Amino acid sequence: MTNMNEQLVSIRGLKKYFQVGPNTTLKAVDDITFDIYNGETFGLVGESGSGKSTLGRTVIRYYDPTAGTIDFKGQAVHALKGRALKTFRREAQMIFQDPYASLNPRMTVADIIAEGLDIHGLTRSSKERMERVYALLETVGLNREHANRFPHEFSGGQRQRIGVARALALEPNFIIADEPISALDVSIQAQVINLLKALQEERGLTYLFIAHDLSMVRYISDRVGVMYLGRLAELADSDTLYENPLHPYTQALLSAVPIPDPVVEKKRERIVLKGDIPSPIDPPSGCRFRTRCPHAMSICAEQVPEWQEVEPGHFVACHLYQQ
Ligand code: SF4
What we know:
The chain is of the alpha/beta class. It contains 11 helices and 12 strands.
């Protein structure tokens, strides 16, 4: 489905800082550049505190950027006004991590799913509204009898399906899925992934799929970006990233992912990173990964490694590969 020639979203030099004290700035996203192509799934991976959710929320205009730009279909997202802004709000939707917290417990499933339709005045009668709700429920593998129930009557997996139906109601072409499966049992995770994949094929959707580890991301992503402390460490198409990871951080993350082949799995060497992810309020100088990197050199403390394309489509920020 990927049309690698057409960018849907272009992110350039994006920074999002938060003032958390009189002289304290949290640099949640710090100079990030990449594109998301029409029809692809871009997986964005990083530990908590890496800035990946802040990035997603800035793309969808939940936050204003501190610096840099985000274009959607060639238009600057944060400059949109009037009708163009309304269109963006329909075309770009979000699915959240915790389907329970993100669904209002006092609203019926029908009202949750139809909320966007109501706000945008997209149905002419209550009959048409309910027909849309029923169709959306069936699209996500639920049924019309579920429409008048409340979120607490559903399992975690079903609740995430309701979240997906809500996101689809306005017929978007771009969905940011912020850790949509992290709160679900492993057995349910694959079902939600399969649903998202099927919807993408049917509707030509583009996804920004945010996750905290690399295990499930491979099965859904065309390309993957790895974030560490507000910066991108590496970006490549999925097969390249999993088979030939260059950045020491990507290598460590991948070493923690079990391999389905028992022979290969037996030989898997786990790279255990020392320490925790440092605070984004006072990140290490130079390469932000240097305090945990097994290959750190003196230059790593002095210079920020450049974001370089080391082979077509494969980007990495690490002094081991600087040309
Ligand atoms: Fe490690 Fe240095 Fe590369 Fe950073 S730049 S990942 S510290 S080798």
